[in-house]
Amino acid sequence: MGASGSALMCCTQVLIGPADVLPLSPSAGMIFGGMAVAGVSYGCVIVSSFARTHSAAVALGYPENIDTFVMLSGITRT
Question: What is the pTM of this model?
Fold first, then answer.
């Protein structure tokens, strides 16, 4: 999920620009649509990062409770 989110984010940045190699002229609709897709792709990256971090923390012996979730949320969001 993280890799697909990162790939989608790269494609989104090319469209928001738009890149010089594409024969597109910038428009508000293309930028707004690109920003919406960027939000979805950012969500994919954040969710997969948190899930992998949580699995690693539990494997290291941290308890699976709210304190661990809060700590990991602070680490992954900053």
Answer: 0.69
